[in-house]
Amino acid sequence: MDxxxxxxxxxxxxxxxxxxxxxxxxxxxxxxxxxxxxAEAEGLAEEVAPALASVLLRFDPGKRTRAExxxxxxxxLAAQDWGGLDDPPPxxxxxxPVALDxxxxxxxxxxxxxxxxxxxxxxxxxELRVRAIGFAPGMPYxxxxxxxxxxxxxxxxxxxxxxxxxxxxxxxxxxxxxxxVTGWRMVGRCAFRPFRREAEAPFVLSPGDALRFEAVTAxxxxxxxxxxxxxxxxxxxx
Length: 238
Hints:
- It is a single chain.
- This protein is of the alpha+beta class.
- Helix content is 21%, strand content 28%.
- The protein contains five helices and 14 strands.
- The chain has helices at 28-40, 66-78, 105-111, 116-125, 218-224, and strands spanning 9-13, 17-21, 47-50, 54-58, 92-98, 128-133, 140-143, 158-161, 165-169, 172-175, 180-182, 185-189, 210-215, 233-236.
- The strands form three sheets. Strands 12-9-10-7-6-13-5-14 form an eight-stranded mixed sheet.
- It is globular, with a radius of gyration of 18 Å.
């Protein structure tokens, strides 16, 4: 995952969308630009949805025109250079218990050039950001890990990993809300579920949130399964 050139583009998308794309490849630099733009784009549209290298502005055609949204996005883009930015400060910091005993931890560590102990230490030391929510309801893409974690996805899919599986590829971690098929390597397990169907706000995490994993044993993790947030805590980081 090399640093991609940051070349913002404003593109129409569907009947009620405008896509602001910062790069054609995913990179920490592109995601930092996305995070900055999303933080400053509040009010440009009814929905501001960050992805890994772009931001979707979804507007209500009954309230504003596409031309107005495009003009607002272009004015915001013109206000600064979007290359070489740092992430904005997070509003919330999550601490999520994890048992780093996944069946592919050893394989992932070897691909990253680490021992299992070193891999565990780095995963626990990283302060990650929720880069995007997608693929499954509430599912976070968490990044970024150090460059040596830029390991490829598997050639073959794993037919199913359980809800709460923590998987890794391309310098990112994903925490699955449900049982799913995946091409990423499973390195750990959490009792935390990022999607709560019956809750007033079913998506627990938000793009831009910071997140750190804290080690627990398999037995401790089992005891957390009955807790609403699986032992996870959230604090105001502002």
